Each structure stands twice: as C-alpha cells, then as structure tokens.
Amino acid sequence: MKKSVVSKEYTNLQKEIVKLQEQWKQSLNPDIIKPNLDKAAMNAGVPAAALTAIDFEIPLFLQWIDEINKLIKKNNPELEGNLTKISELLNEESAIRWIDEAFSFNQFYFVSFAQENEVEEWIPQFLAETALRPYLQLTAEVLQPEISHAVHGAGCPVCGEPVRLAQLEGNGKKVIHCPRCHAHWPEKRVECSHCGNEDSNTIHYLTIEGDATSQLQVCDKCQGYLKVIDTRQFISKPSSAILDLNTIHLDFIAQEKGYKAVAGNSESN
Ligand SMILES: [Zn+2]
Ligand SMILES: [Zn+2]
Q1: Backbone angles phi, psi at 58, to 5 degrees
Q2: Where are the domains of the chain?
Q3: What ligand has the least distance to the C-alpha of 194?
Q4: Among 52, 91, 146, 178, which residue has the fewest nearby CB atoms (within 10 Å)?
Q5: pLDDT, tens only, 175-234
Q6: How far is the CA of 85 from the centre of ligand 1 (A)?
C-alpha cells in the first residue's frame, strides 16, 4: 500500500502550522477559559467548548492569521494575491464572525465569503480554523479532567470534531484522541464511537499491508470507521494532530471502502 498519498509539501506545511499552534497555545493564559460544565447538555452531546466562555483576544487572533499567511506564502508564492486580499478584509468584526463560524464548522459561510471576495474556496475556513485551534486546545487542556467519555455519534466531547483516531496505550487500552483539540477519552476495545455498537460480529478490523502498527476499525451497523494506532512501540509520541496527518492514508482507504467518520452534521474531514 502506497503511504504517500498526500504531497510532502502539504505535510510539511501542516507540521509547521502544528508547531506554531503549540507556541500560540503556550502563550495564552488559561484564565481566559471559563467553563460551564452543564452535565445535562454534555450528556446530550453538546460539545463542552460550546458551553465555555472563551475570552478571545482578537488582535492576537488577527496576528496569528497574518503569521499563517506568511507561512503559506513562503510555500505557495502564487497565493500571495489571495492572502493579501483576505488580510485587508479582516477586521475585529469579521474576526469575531470567523471564530463563531469556524467553531460551528459552517462551511457554507466560508464558501460564500470566498466567492464574494473572489479568493480560493479553501483559504478562509483554513485560516479561521487554524487560528481557532490553539483556543480549542487550551480549552481541552482545562477541561480534560472532566472528560471521561463521549456521546456516541456526537464527535469530540470538547470540540465536536468527528471521531476518527484512537491509540492503543498501556496494556492495550483503547483511547480516542481528538486531532483538533487534543482531548482524549477511553473507549471499549470492541465499541463503535459513532453508534455505540458493541457486537463483535459487526465490528471488524482491517489491517494495513506493510503497516504493523495501524488498523481500521469499521462498523457494519453505521458504516463508521476509526483509525486505531498502536503507538506503544513508537520512540517518540507525536501529537494527535501529527498522528492524524501521518495516518491520512488510512482515511483514504476507509473512505474508498465506503466508511465514514460520521458525527453530528459536521462535514469536516
Ligand atoms: Zn476535540
Ligand atoms: Zn457503528
């Protein structure tokens, strides 16, 4: 199985971005996160971040977008026109809107923004999502002690991202990791994250040729899939964002076979 389905340039850009996001998150004061742990709402599948008051520092958010722009320009000089245009359009008001819409995965908003302003369709949401993540990751860090399980089908209990990645840890315990906010929570070995199916007759594992540490867990009941990576032998453990990126070939295999990382109404990934 060919592993390099994504260009090296794209992977390298993503890795540089993940590094920047980590620095940005470190620079934030955790006191800006004010959780409201409404158990009833969380048990109904509302992501905890949606119930949390986050004190966004808008000038900082805009500064991060500029930094991402610089990075993209360095890698893709042909996008300079697009990126400059977006920088000019962004102000405090539109930044607040971007944060809201990125949080709720509103692809429709970003596509119309791109069309109205004649920039490439993927760029606005990509920028907004990239600059939002450090806030989500800090939120997940603050909330992590409260996160012990997820509602099936509702995605990540902190940020709502579709579930697609698990790691085998310790003596084989399966732990779901969110590549968007880095929250994690345990799950039974034979359990579908998407529909809660625990029937070993309808949950299967697909092994990946030439890749002894990866499996795809697929569910015949809901057609959901999960990448299960045994990271116990890894010399250095990558962050879940990097692990997700390094195993993107598994998403393609699963999707080619008709499986989905289903969650709520999100279309992300
Ligand atoms: Zn998450
Ligand atoms: Zn299922």
Answers
A1: -60, -45
A2: 8-146, 165-256
A3: 2
A4: 91
A5: 999 999 999 999 999 999 999 999 999 999 999 888 889 999 999 999 999 999 999 988
A6: 31
